[in-house]
């Protein structure tokens, strides 16, 4: 029995390609469209919308600052604009890089930072701390809080990519092979 178990687990431990490939697939299947749709809500009108985010973008990212200026974005600073534009672009670029497997470790690290900032904004900017079910608690019997439960899984999948890379079916692997002359 022990030798059968050892034989089976030995094969699994040699499947280094499986974990990063599945992590990218799970990210694409569960989070890609979440972030892209969120990014779309932040774009302004037309092609200029890439550089002129919607009022809703500012309200999502800086809720208290927007409330303080009665939702008049012209009263905000260049810092606010830069954060909103870079955050909006990040919601498109970083997930696309992860799905393509291009600069995967860096993109996954960027997504982890994005999720941390997103969570802090939800807790402090949007009042999530006032609703304990939003923040949640680990080691309780409820697996559905938005911050501690759901986003912990998001970050775990991304940490797999930071540590393991993109796997064999990726642009990272193709570029590495090309640079090595294979």
TrEMBL record:
TM annotation in the entry: 17-37, 78-99, 106-125, 153-171
- What topology in the membrane does the UniProt record assign? Multi-pass membrane protein
Q: Which UniProt keywords apply?
A: Membrane, Transmembrane, Transmembrane helix
Q: Where in the cell is it found?
A: Membrane
Pfam families listed in its UniProt record? DoxX (PF07681)
User: What top-level branch of life does the organism fall under?
Assistant: Bacteria
The family database entries (InterPro entries) matched by this protein are listed as:
DoxX (IPR032808)
Protein's recorded name: DoxX
Q: Which species does this protein come from?
A: Roseobacter fucihabitans
């Amino acid at each position: 029995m022990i030798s059968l178990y050892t034989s089976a687990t030995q094969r699994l431990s040699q499947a280094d390609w499986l974990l990063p490939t599945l992590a990218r697939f799970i990210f694409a299947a569960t989070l890609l469209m979440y972030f892209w749709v969120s990014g779309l809500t932040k774009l302004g009108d037309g092609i200029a919308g890439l550089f002129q985010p919607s009022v809703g973008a500012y309200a999502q990212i800086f809720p208290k600052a927007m409330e303080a200026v009665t939702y008049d974005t012209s009263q905000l600073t260049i810092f606010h604009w830069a954060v909103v534009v870079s955050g909006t672009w990040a919601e498109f670029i970083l997930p696309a890089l992860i799905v393509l497997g291009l600069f995967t470790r860096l993109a996954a690290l960027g997504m982890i930072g994005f999720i941390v900032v997103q969570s802090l904004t939800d807790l402090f900017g949007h009042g999530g701390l006032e609703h304990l079910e939003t923040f949640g608690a680990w080691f309780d019997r409820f697996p559905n809080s938005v911050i501690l439960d759901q986003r912990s899984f998001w970050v775990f999948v991304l940490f797999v990519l930071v540590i393991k890379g993109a796997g064999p079916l990726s642009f990272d692997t193709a570029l590495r092979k090309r640079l090595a002359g294979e």
